[in-house]
Amino acid sequence: MSHAEKLILDGNAVAAGIKEQLEARIARLAERGITPCLATILVGGDPSSATYVRMKGNACKRLGISSIRVELPASTTTEELIAAIRKLNDDKSVHGILLQHPVPHGIDERAAFEAIAIEKDVDGVTTLGFAQNAFGFADYPSCTPAAIMAILAHYKLPIRGRHAVVIGRSPILGKPVSAMLLNADATVTTCHSRTEDLASIVRLADIVVAAVGKPKFVQGDWIKPGAVVLDAGYNPGNVGDVDYEACMANASAITPVPAGVGPVTIATLLKHTVDAAEKFGG
Asked: What is the E.C. number (predicted)?
């Protein structure tokens, strides 16, 4: 199969479709005097986290979604962060709360995530949000897993009965996407850093989700001919977790980095914020 015959899974196109559907919904909310509002909390000065928060803010602005940026110093305590989250929970004009991961060492990140009210947990980071996703009825599943499912749906790539291998087990990516694929009738193997003979397991996969946080980790000869490859990684130098050129040789469909999963993740966050505004906006 030549490069020309490969299906490049264009995240920008999928994201544009999601945003287009949101425009009319945002206009209808405006008629009711409601502006969807996303609050992002950034603790410390991590430059890549600051970039992500800025990108999310710009995406909100372009669609007419209000965004509040809460910036706290690296010296912030767990108690101070939870107090800031509770203040946003109580603010009726805020519909979604996003705590940018990771937070500085010394803060209990899990306790901070748990402080987010479930109706404002637009990135599915609470234990309850995770559980609802596992059961298949979450209002707001984690955005990157939801983005992966949206890409598969957009391109009508079959999931039912397929063997999906997820590389990574984080509570906001690997585990929730495994649950979503399972709920969509895939047979799912979740791998991680301690998986033995990882390559041989990946070679069995019809769908590969790379979420391991290591540049070009997934090798071309790991990919079964005709497999679908979804790269959820983003590393310095605009490189994903997949060796793109090498994996493309065998894959039938593959997401690029950038312009793959990333734009759809942000569009999903905006969608969840609009969903929350419609549900709880007054």
From this structure: 1.5.1.5, 3.5.4.9
